[in-house]
Amino acid sequence: MPGEGDWIASFQTVHRGAKPGGLSDLEALHAREDVRLMPLQRNAKGLLLDLPSLGRVDYTTRNACVTCTRREAVKSVLPVGEGATLFGDGDGLRWLDGSWRHTVAVLSRSMDFTGTPPCLLLFGETGELAHQVTLPDPEAWEAFIALVRRHHGCWNCLSHRPTTAGPATAAQGACPIWMLREAWSGAGSERDLEIRLGGLGLDRLLALRAMEGLYTSLITVQDLASVLAGLAASGLPVHAQVGNRHCTQVLESPIGDLTLGPGDWKIHLDGALLTLDPSGLDTLWSVAQPSPSGERHRLECYDAAGGRVLVLSSPQDPCPLVHLGWQRLLGRLDGGSFH
């Protein structure tokens, strides 16, 4: 729909250059005069359980560099502990963290919703946009109205705490390299690795730097473009993660259409469109993750603030041919082989 992409992008300010101390995404939304806002209940888990009633709509997760939009009818909503929720249609899944707090229903003040359809915006505890649900099909609007009525809140439901600086990251020398290597090699999953690194007082980016030459290697944006082109040409399946600190979209399929233009890159994956701004990428890593069945390979992309904006990896427990294909593809990169 013409204009819908700009409409989706217009609700996020923090990831588009806002400075600390400025307006949060939620505060910037409240200041806009071109939209009508309807606050919904704070931390309304029942609203998530109602998402299947909307039918096929657009689900968008974005960060500083990547926007992922997938049109689907959510079939399952599953609480998974610690306040987090997993929801999707089985092919595309989203992990909404327990830090999600606020939801707003948004309508354009224009009577013509062409290019500016109704949407639901989900925000984190500090007012940062976590996820967006857009309803481009008028047939879904009646269900949207019913959902808003069931979960309507008040303006107090949107009160949120200001962003504060996070705790200082522990110095690299504070953790012996053998302990980091043991944690890295022993992790059974991405979540397990995060827990192990947290226990050592290390964030992920610092761990990548410490493992450079052993399990990780810096690559360039041109290397990323080459790998994407190789994946698209080979038909190898790709496990992709796109998100922010509140919500992560997970997809797994071969890459379909791929456009590596002078501006944004367009990647079609499992019915989703990923739009990547390569100018926003700061550091990119080729990574090998040891496991009992062999190394699992992935690419991790970070913005200038240290946020992980995109992960592309081989599938979990791939067949030997897929594993070999990924090895060969990443082996073309300088330092792509780890020993």
Task: Put the structure in a nutshell.
This protein has helices at residues 4-9, 25-31, 45-49, 141-150, 177-186, 190-199, 204-210, 221-234, 320-331, and strands at 35-39, 56-62, 66-73, 76-81, 84-88, 93-96, 100-108, 119-124, 129-134, 216-219, 237-243, 247-260, 265-269, 272-276, 281-289, 296-303, 308-313. It is of the alpha+beta class.
SSE series: HHEHEEEEEEEEHHHHEHEEEEEEEH
Radius of gyration: 20 Å
Tell me what the CATH architecture of the largest domain is.
3-Layer(aba) Sandwich
Low-pLDDT segments: 14-20, 165-173, 335-339
Assign the structural class, choosing from mainly alpha, mainly beta, alpha/beta, alpha+beta, or little secondary structure.
alpha+beta
Number of E-type strands = 17
CATH class of the largest domain: Alpha Beta
Task: Write the CATH fold name of the largest domain.
Answer: Heme iron utilization protein-like fold
